[in-house]
Amino acid sequence: MTNHDTHEVHIPKLIIALVLGIIIWAIPVPEGLKPEAWHLFAIFVFTIFGIILKALPMGTMCFAGLSLTLLTGTLSIKGQALSGFSNSTIWLIVIAFFIARGFIKTGLGSRVAYFFIYNFGSKTIGLSYSLALTDLVLAPATPSNTARAGGVIFPILKSMAHNFGSDPENSSRKKIGEYLTLTAFQIDMITSAMFVTSMAANPLIVQFAHSNGVEISWGKWALAALVPGLISIALIPLIVFKLFPPEIKETPDAKKIASEKLKEMGPISTHEWIMIGVFVLLILFWILGATLGIAATTTAIAGLSILLMTGVLTWEDIKSEKGAWDTLIWFGVLVMMADFLNKLGFIPWFSDIIATYVGVLSWTIAFPILLLIYLYSHYMFASATAHVTAMAAAFMAVGISVGVPPMLMALTLGFFSNLMGSTTHYGSGPAPVLFGSGFVELTDWWKLGFLLSVINIFIWMSVGGVWWKILGIY
Question: Percentage of the chain with pLDDT > 90?
């Protein structure tokens, strides 16, 4: 997810976040906690609430939090406060941003979309599946689901809606625009859950899991998400088709439009072929990396190097990829804070408190309760990253402490960290982009979001649960 913050400074919101941090700092340190742990928590609250309230851009808030950890002496600059920037998982996601730029720059992303539309887009539902397949293909190497849905899928979706006379300004939006917008958004939430590298906050889950002694490889995440993810992708366009049926059911002209676009693009260029080759190599080595002893970040660095040396990407492209450098800053700071909240003992202490309330339950009962609270609390968040940072580490630790198999707890939190984004028009990066198009009424967006959240929970916990049992995850 990319950051949608503006450059505006909202002083009242900043004051609220600061006051909350000061109040927590001023409270006597709870028994059993180090002062540094409590003070870091106060700074963390200030940072997270600033992000939630959008008092400042996310990177600015994180930098402010970083400076406070140093100025107050809570953490040292050597080996502590800046440790997040050397985290290999962070660099994996940053490099994936650069690689994703290649799909857009070469036109390969659009070519994939038009290829699917040409082959499957003769009906409206086929057009929806074409966009879904495009999203799925691009997801493993596109950590910005906003760039994927907003930069590749949405322009094509909007063009198709326009060509079929669907205008967001009047009732003609129901011809096809409403249906395509709803399905494209909901599918993007599913593809975001399917790969470590398909949403920027996913590696936070991997990092929290590592802190709890659970190692999640790229391939393990993808394999665990494969079956429930594909089932959700298969069902969502059908469900939306029944609930919000488009007035236009047949789209024979879509194939013609796609054909014309492909002709305009000409044959696959050399740079596109290189992009395809690098993409295949990335997927192959990400899947086999654990077996071959090659880290996922090493593979990403090698892939980016090939794109740079062959001229598919230039160093100017790298320097101008603002989303990647922005992610490096906020990601590095948030990972560092979460890591030291755990190392200094705050997360274990807090988890023990929560565990006293759910510890009387068997893990099979506590597990779904924790997941449901985690998912539906997202109505209070306007950022998946803020939600994951604020709650995932504690919920993971609590789940493990009451007996939930560690790998199961970590992976399901990762999946739910994406599925929760389907609920509102503000809760994930792509939501404001697609909702802002005007094709969907707010009440319809929320109604469908809640219904599909229930359906996705059922799919991922029932079919997914059986699949995870087969894989030996629990």
Answer: 51
